[in-house]
Amino acid sequence: MIFSKLKPLLSQRIIGLHRPMSEHRVFPMQPSRWQWNKFKDMFQFYVMLGVIPLGLITLYANVFVGPATLSEIPEDYTPKYWEYYRHPITRFIARYILTNPQQEYEKYLSFIFMEQEKKQLRMVANAVKQKIAERRDYQAYYYRPVMAKYHRISREAFEYVDSIRGD
User: Fold this and answer.
1) CA torsion, points 70, 74, 80, 84, in degrees to nearest 10?
2) Which is nearest to 65 in space by CA: 85, 47, 94, 80?
3) Per the count of CB atoms within 10 A, which of 45, 100, 120, 125 is most buried?
């Protein structure tokens, strides 16, 4: 009870001790949002830089070009692989960005051929190792094949010098 009677007196003294400065407006301390705002601005800019042109291209392809229709193929004409797609954007991607399916197939066949060659070489190497183990032989690493090109050059030089000497 006594404290409730003293409260107004105490509060007046406390207020009287403080200087009234700009109605208690303070600058709140908080982390900067500059990087986040910059990220949002750049993201929106680059998304719009890509979305608007692609949207216009898609709109043009759908409204003015439209999907492909089936028609008779002339006798002497062989259609290209991208002409089998219906949508013009898909045809563009198949023609200029993706690789030819025939090329992919030939690359795959080349890969299979190379792996088969490697397999045969490994089989030959294993057979050689097996024969070496059977016969208790050793590999002849000291043999170095000689290229005949340099012998021909030295022989031609020797013959030229011999012809000049005239002996």
Assistant:
1) 10
2) 85
3) 100
Structure tokens that stand for 130 in this block:
């097996």
- 87's CB contacts (< 8 A; 6+ apart) are 61, 67, 68
Distance between CA atoms of 154 and 166, rounded to whole angstroms? 18
Instruction: Give every CB contact of residue 85 below 8 A, 6+ residues apart in sequence.
Output: 68, 91, 94
The structure's pTM equals: 0.52
Joined together, the tokens standing for residue 24 give 């208690």
* Segments of the chain assigned E as strands: none
134 or 112: whose pLDDT is higher?
A: 112
Whether the CB-CB separation of 59 and 80 falls below 8 Å is answered with no
pLDDT score, position 7: 60
**Under 8 Å between Cβ of 79 and 73:** yes
Residue 134 is predicted with a pLDDT of 86
